[in-house]
Amino acid sequence: MAKNKAETEATAEADQPKTTKAQAIRDALAADPKGMPKDIADKLTAEGWNVAANEVSQMKYQLKAAKKKKRQQKAAAKAAEAVPVAAVPADMVSVAALQKAKKLIQELGGVKEAKQALAALSQLLD
Fold first, then answer.
1. What pLDDT, on the 0 to 100 scale, is given for residue 84?
2. Mean pLDDT per 10-residue segment, the chain (126 residues)
3. What is the pTM of this model?
4. What three-state secondary structure class fits 6?
5. Contact (Cβ atoms closer than 8 angstroms) between residue 25 and residue 51
6. Which of 58, 64, 65, 32 is nearest to 44 (CA)?
7. Which residues of 15-34 are buried (b: 16+ CB within 10 A; e: fewer)?
8. How far is Cα 6 from Cα 61, in angstroms, rounded to an integer?
């Protein structure tokens, strides 16, 4: 029995690896990172992709931004590891603690009332 045209095309598409236009642009940029977007777009057009130079330029920018962000995250993580815990002053109050204090003050009706409540609490704890 002969295959119809749709079955033949479906089989041919299944045999080829599925590559998106974006992946083709990324591959071309990986092969020629210093290449100009117009040249890379021309190469991809010759390979059968419908690619404009501005698409290549956008992808190039996105890859550069992602690389920069990753580098900054690594530097921040390294800097966080380098700061010893003892370097933080003991009298320093965290933002979370200040937010909780603000909420307590609002619940008690003001700073004066919060001070009175804390004084009463310290007498109970002593």
1. 63
2. 53 61 95 94 95 96 94 86 64 83 89 89 85
3. 0.49
4. helix
5. yes
6. 32
7. eeeeeeeeebbbebbeeeee
8. 39
